[in-house]
Amino acid sequence: MRLRGTAHTAAGLLLAVALGCTGGAGDGVSEAAPTPARATGESPRSAPSPTPADPVSLQALMRREHTGSGLRLGAVLDRTDAYTRYAVTYEANGLTISGIMNIPRGEGPFPAVVLAHGYIDPDVYVSGQGMPREQDRLARSGYVVLHTDYRNHARSGKDPDNDLNLRLGYTEDVIGAALALRDSGRPEIDGDRIGLFGRSMGGGVVYNTLVVAPGLFDAAVAYAPVSTRPEENIDHFQRPDGDPLVAEIEDRHGTPAEDPAFWRGVSPLTHAARMTEPLLIQHGTADDTCPLAWSREAAAAFRKAGKDVELRPVSGEGHTFGPKWAASMDVTEAFLARHLR
């Protein structure tokens, strides 16, 4: 995979965010861990795969030349005592992606954090929705915060096959956000210090990004993430509601029983050996939306692959975190400070 800070490629593979699969670390299509990009000064590349990658797969994303640039600050949405909030757009693999950015007051450059929000119906989503507490707190702590809307959300460009192809396109949007920050040339932004923070579905985007683009971020945080097995997410969230998209997904890609190789190919745990960044996972013990067991499985698999992963169960908290959210953010900020400051 090649990473470039200039977006010149037309939108190509219409990929999607599959958040898991039937394979674990060391599964049949896993690849060797690459040397981190920052250690060599080169863009990270994947090792050759033993079999051709399905065009809808994490392996296909690993091979893609990812681009991100054109970060543009638009209207001022708010001015606080600590930061200014802007509407922004950037380019990710040729697609325009909207979002919001909080820039701290004072003299930069400031480290940056890309936020990857959880699932919100794109038909009702408004720009910047999903992680407002984190946006405010991190900006007050001296981080430039770029909250990506993802494709098909708010003012972003359209990718009509994204849901059918398991939403892997969101991973492209996050990679593009980091590249656009690095390429921005803005004096407030330190493009050499970038973290990634996702919650719920966005936690799955974090997992995918870490194995597709190792070395792009300095550290990553996931709150209450979804399963790393895409079929488990489908069975948990979509099938019980009778979502007609399930039949379309299985018609196009096959069921896990019919095509296990496809479902392994969209699991981040299949490629756990590629991850290079430290990862913090926080998950409420009373979460009845995304079971804590999902994070325990992910953390165990990454650790088995020799990765720096910390799982912190948050006692009594549900999916969105309530009374202990502030304390959880103390932990998150200490983690980010160790790796970004």
UniProtKB/TrEMBL annotation:
Superkingdom to which the source organism belongs: Bacteria
Stretch list, region Disordered: 27-55
Residue ranges of domain Peptidase S9 prolyl oligopeptidase catalytic in the record: 137-324
Gene Ontology MF terms in the entry: hydrolase activity
Leader sequence residues: 1-25
Keywords, alphabetical: Hydrolase, Signal
Record flagged with keyword Chloroplast: no
Family, as annotated: Belongs to the AB hydrolase superfamily.
The protein's name in its UniProt record: Alpha/beta fold hydrolase
Originating organism: Streptomyces indiaensis
